[in-house]
Amino acid sequence: MRFPILPFFVLLLITGSCGKKNELFVNEKPEESRFTKITLIEKLDEPMEIEVLKDGRILFIERRGKIKIFEPQSGLAKDIGFIPVYSESEDGLLGLAKDPGFETNQWIYLYYSPQGELSVNRLSRFTLVDDILDMGSEKIMLEIPHFRGCCHSGGSIEFDSKGNLFLSLGDDTTPFESDNYNPIDERSGRPENVDAQRSSSNTNDLRGAILRITPQTDGTYTIPEGNLFPEGTPDTRPEIYVMGNRNPFRISVDPKNGYLYWGEVGPDAQFDSLQRGPRGYDEVNQAKEAGFFGWPYFIGDNKRYWDYDFQQQKSLFEFDPKAPVNNSPNNTGLKQLPPAHPAMIWYPYADSEDFPMLRSGGRNAMAGPVYYYDLFPDSEVKFPKYYHGKLFFYDWMRNWIFTANFDENGDFQSMEEFMPSTKFDKPIDMQFGPDGALYILEYGTYWSAQNDDSGIYKIEFSFGNRKPIAKAAADKTQGALPFTVRFNSEGSLDFDGDELIYEWDFYGDGTEISNGQNPSFVFKKEGEFQTVLTVKDKNGASNQTFIPIVVGNEPPKITIQWNGNRSFYWGNPRIKYKVGVEDKEDGNLSNGGIPSELVRVTWDFLQEGFDKVISSEGHQLNENSLQLIGQDLTVKSGCNACHGLENVSVGPSYKAVALKYEDRPDASDYLVKKVLNGGGGVWGERLMPSHAHIENTEITQIVDYILSLSPNSVLNSKNRIGLEGELNLNKHVDCGTYLFAASYTDKGANGIAPISRRTEITLRNPLILAADADFFKGTAKANNQDSRIIKFTENSSYIGFKDIDLNYLEKITLSIDPNRRKGWFEIREGSIEGTVIGKTPIISNESRSSNSKERWFEYSISLKKSDKVSDIYILFQTETGVDIWNSFLMNTIYFENKK
């Protein structure tokens, strides 16, 4: 074959491109913008594990028994099988793996809880025939006894590169009857599932262990060399690779060196006990070889539990990690156990002293894959060499992903967060596909529920041209026919600076398309639609985002007549108000179309105000709403993992709780103590762990939000007021916040569900710490115990406040310290480029009165008259510059009303 003669520089570009690509991002961490998270499919029903096939299709299972396959060409998933399962508590269809020879034999392995009276969990092999699960092909490989109705089933399946199958099994032990310390209750006559010594530390029991077996073609298995107990060892099970596990829910195997990794879900004790042992920790573990990993005698880095006599309620001695002994009468295996291996990473509910990067909160550790760059030679979307040899581990409760780095001996060296600015909703499984992209299965917010925010996602990396980011917004998303919507693509961008092409599909079916960047569109048919925005760069790379549009029901409009400022209070005023409601389909209050009893008006006083709960993990709330704060805190605290708004999960629904306690005057205090201390017996045998790691004020706000879900609750009736009247602001002393709210839910129309609307007025003390502003740029906060001041670190730095009612405001008084510098402040309305409504002259130390010895002095700024509600910005300007030592400091801002 003859080749055309090419210029030398062209040959250099062609032959050198691959080599140059290999040199990129080897030691330098790539910026997050080079990763793109792509939605493949959403709204799954309790998805558990995935397997990415060579052709890009994805096998996955759902806990209630369905086996499905996602086909990227159509963007849909089809059911390919169903297994009747027992799906209460933590059981069901739990584990999935494809055979190493799947492309030719079509074998998959499932771990599940078979329906019926037989209380076992089962590992079986099945064959797919034309992409359908052949139920008659089942080869039962293992059956493990399991105490149904409680806890810790495990169930993760992984293969190593030698064809060995690993299966993780929980300890099958209730944690609740041992005060959330180690469950080693040996008393006769007690249920069998209160002693983990019968499982996790029993060499003759498969539970509380990770097994390693080698499947054979006939559906049996053999034992590979190197397991913990050689075949034939008395009182042992040769399938055990590692034991001493509590709930190893997700495991992975390094594809090159065979090291086993797993996330260990730990107990819930909040505090160390001198007589019981350490508080609870989750773990990320590494096993280079077979071994015993401590439970229920040790946790974390071999922190020791006590041998506790439940009969005498007496602690006897601390267990020895070098020579652990299992003397439980429920033990059927060896008494002398191997030395305990410590965890690789461990962390409690609170901030970790050893691994502070992992933060605090609920916890549910899981192990993901180890990445190797050279396993994906031909991929354009694979991860760079920077991640070569690193372990991806994640937490289901905390919604983060980290990578672990190892030294030349394979020992843990360091960690760093992966894509910290990206949102993950309860990641439950992940693996690198054949294209080197990371595929993530997200379970969604609520445990034991079909979640709209569940799904399968793909994270691709771009060495060169990056996919654009698609952002879309609409001025309204609900309304009656004809429904005109103004769309915009503000925030869409291309990190490579390419000009973007915008395509809008308004109905989501290709029937109405526009190529405008910010189009308007009139919807002329009723229904629920997904408007799609696709953005493309000049190289054809594209991305999409969606906006749900509901046409056929106009949202209600709530108005509040209010004869006072809507942001602050001064003294003890009396304020007249009147609430109005109009709805296009229902009518209005004045003509009787809307009954007055369906409009809920409340008046609350919060002594603590909103300062501590305005934001959650960096997400700023848009409204100072008691309900919104409560909703936000249920997510932040992890409550939504076990409770749904209306659906029963591990615990009762929030609405069921609200209805149960709606006529109890002490409901709030009672439930706060219940959440704080934990307990059970009200909603069944399942116990709720203590939540002492959450601040009392936040627990109170969560409880008050839950109780408010019943319209007849004591909380609601206590705070509910009429549609018009006069309010007396007399409950505050020096601080506190008043909250006025009016809400109405319409009746729905034209097949469209009812729509709720809520309008609020929040009044707070006009003296505000500068550090409690809503916006900051170019500033530094001092958060010492007795000092929360703001330092302006550069010219044109600022702080800002959201939604300030400028009506009745005359001045803003700043408490400042020029700190040997000169500068001035401008008050701007709406934005930092907005109208200047107040300005100081140049201020310096000389601006103080001659006899002032105080550090702080006050400077008042008169404001231009305005009746708007607007964001305001306090902008610092200087011509003398600032440095690390000397710059303007600000302590407080006082909003002064007209006398």
Write the layout of secondary structure elements.
Elements: H1 8-23, E1 35-42, E2 47-52, E3 58-62, E4 66-71, E5 76-82, E6 93-98, H2 102-105, E7 107-112, E8 120-129, E9 132-145, E10 157-159, E11 165-168, E12 209-215, E13 221-222, E14 240-243, E15 248-253, E16 260-264, E17 282-287, E18 291-292, E19 298-299, E20 303-304, E21 306-309, E22 314-318, E23 345-347, E24 365-370, E25 391-395, E26 400-406, E27 412-417, E28 427-432, E29 438-442, E30 455-461, E31 473-474, E32 478-479, E33 483-488, E34 501-505, E35 513-514, E36 520-523, E37 527-536, E38 542-551, E39 557-562, E40 574-583, E41 587-588, E42 600-606, E43 615-616, E44 619-620, H3 626-637, H4 654-660, H5 667-677, H6 696-707, H7 714-719, E45 724-728, E46 737-745, E47 756-764, E48 767-769, E49 775-777, E50 779-781, E51 790-792, E52 798-805, E53 809-817, E54 824-829, E55 835-839, E56 857-862, E57 869-877, E58 889-897
Parallel strand pairs: 14-18, 32-38
Antiparallel strand pairs: 1-30, 2-3, 3-4, 4-5, 6-7, 7-8, 8-9, 10-11, 11-12, 12-13, 12-14, 15-16, 16-17, 17-23, 19-20, 21-22, 24-25, 25-26, 26-27, 28-29, 29-30, 31-33, 33-36, 34-35, 34-37, 37-38, 39-40, 40-41, 40-45, 42-46, 43-44, 46-47, 48-58, 49-52, 50-51, 51-58, 52-57, 53-56, 53-58, 54-55, ...
